[in-house]
Each structure stands twice: as C-alpha cells, then as structure tokens.
Amino acid sequence: MAQTTANAQPNSVATLSNVHHEPADSILKMVVRRFFKHRMAVIGAVLLLVIVLFVTVGTLFYSEEYANQTSLLNKNQPPSAEHPLGTDQVGRDILARAIYGGQISLMIGVTSVVISIVVGTLVGLVSGFFGGWLDSILMRFVEALLSIPTLILLLVLSSVLTRETATVNVLGRELSSTVVIIVLIIGLTTWMPLSRIVRSLVLSLKEQDFILAARAIGVVDRGIIFRHVLPNCIAPIVVSATLGIGTSIITEAYLSFLGFGVLPPTATWGNILAPARDMIETVWWMWMVPGALIVMTVLAINFIGDGLRDALDPRSVQ
Known about the structure:
- By secondary structure, the protein is mostly helical.
- The chain has 14 helices and 2 strands; from the N terminus they run H-H-H-H-H-H-H-E-E-H-H-H-H-H-H-H.
- The protein has one domain (28-311): MetI-like (MetI-like fold, Orthogonal Bundle), CATH 1.10.3720.10.
- It is elongated.
- The longest helix is centred in the middle third of the chain and has 37 residues, at 94-130.
C-alpha cells in the first residue's frame, strides 16, 4: 500500500506540472474582442471608414478649385453625367463640395472634441482631487454655464465672433477664419458635462487603497493624478469623446444652416445644406446629399460609441 501511494504521488506531481496555464488577456485585447462582438459597432466602424474614404480618396478626382468654381449658367442643375449629384445655387458641383466639406466637418468635430475633452478632464480632475474651496468655485462655474441654453450661447457667440471673413492657412489649405472660431466655440461650450463625470469618478477613486498607498510612499499630487487617477477615468472619457464628435458635427451643421457657422468659400456639410431651406421641394439634391452624409456619419459614430461603452465596461463578462 505504501508503495502504491509513493508511486501515485510522482504521477500527481507530473499531472500538475503538465497543466497548461493560458496567459491572461491584456486589457486592450479584451476591449478589442468585446468591441468586435458588438455588431452595430462594427457596422458603424465600416460605415465611418467608407465616409472617410469618400472625403479623402475623392480629392484625387476633384480639386478644391473645381469645388469652389461657380457657373451661373449651371445653377440648380439636377444630377447628370457632368454633375453626378447636381449643382447648387451658384453652379458649384455638389459632389466636389461634399468631399471637401466633409473634410472640414469631420475636422471640426474631432478638433472641437479634443479641446472639450482636455478642458473637461482637467477641470474634473482638479475639482475632484483637491476638493474644498477650489471644488466649490469650479463646480459653481460649471453649473452657471450649464444653466445657459446651449443653442442661445452658441448663436450669440457665433454672431459676434464670425463676422470676419479673412482666411487662414491650415496645413497648406486656405480656409475661412470662421472654421477656427467655430472649433473654439464648440470646444469651449461643451466640456461641462464631462467635467462633472470625471469629478464624480475622482471623488470615489481618491479614497481607494492604491491612492492612499501612493500618498504613503511620497508620490506627489501631480503623479497621483496623472499616473493613478487619470488612467482609471479613461473609459468614460473615450466614450464621451466618441459621442461628442457626432454632436459637434451636428452643432456645426445647424449653426451653418442658420447662417452663424462657417462662411463661404470654405465648404462644410452644414453650409452646403443652408441654401436649400428656401427650395426644399424644387432642388431636393441640394439638401439630400449633405443631409444624408451628416445622418450616416453621426449614426456611425454613435454606434461606435455604444460599442466602446460596452467594451470598456468592467462589469462586462464577454
């Protein structure tokens, strides 16, 4: 019996030694896997890729000079072989303008969100981490801004700041200075909700054991904020940034539609759409093309945002 037990023990050890331990997935791999399991997010990513290819590859076939070229003899022409998506009220090709206008609309969406995310995240981090009188001042300022209707604030700022028609050179392109102004207006009027989200996360995080341990070993506040607190706030920031791009594109579109946005000759989907408001029934192609592009882009971005929200959710078990 003793011999049997002695023989069984090495076999058990051998069996245990042969057990193959699968390496744990990294956070990035888990997020990617969860994202691609979200069917609508994948559809949104593909749709957004198609739109990005449309506004980039299209420049190989149409020049910006052609997109801004007017011809009163060809104004309000329906789709044809020469102008596949028709012409506008001064004879400009809508397809070419949709390509270059899409670049500006997407650029406004991305850059304004970058400004909004940076300001909102910094305010939320400082307010939540330091608390006290600084928290009170910052949050009262945020609440005061949130109490002002966003549309009214945007319209007032746009009407005051977009009167200049000068041009600026951005990456080799001559753009209306109103592009820069609209980016700043949208970016600096949309950061408040994110600051409150980040602040609430920081208030719970700063009492966690790992933060207290970092303080105990002498890590300075700046190191704690950017090395320990900020990485734990990334998920809501990423989701907010993604959804914010769609919101910024819509904001620019209705500001331009109302005449308070980007001014010609620089094209955006919003100011391509604007002249059609008085000719909805007769020149349907003038509003349908930019309108469809805006809707598809915002839908795609919202689908991606939903997918990222689920993929970054720590409670997900997928």
